[in-house]
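Journal club prep — side note

Before the paper discussion, L.F. wants everyone to see what a predicted structure for a comparable chain looks like in token form. Sequence:
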Amino acid sequence: MFGVGFGEGAVLVVLAIIIFGPDQLPRVAAQAGRALRQLRTMANSAKQDLQEGLGPEFADFDLADLNPRRFVTKHLLDDLDDLDVREPARDDSVLPYGERPPYDPEAT
């Protein structure tokens, strides 16, 4: 979570106890939780306002689609799944001398 390992998390907890003290640490943690919840609510509200402002023609618009990697995957690579791409049949047999290979209309 957040790229913090066990050792780093333990160091952060010890620093929090030293900085805020064991008696104020629950109050500070509760304030941090409330601030994080309020920030998440504000972000969701802004996202909803943006979707409402765009109108019904953008009802299926997702902000995550603006991520370049997801954009390329959605608009370019998904089309490859629709193609009928088959592996050519492997026939390792060798034609005898003078015999012509079979006619393939797709190869011409």
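L.F.'s comment for the group: Residues 6-54 form the longest helix (49 residues). Keep this in mind when we get to the figures.
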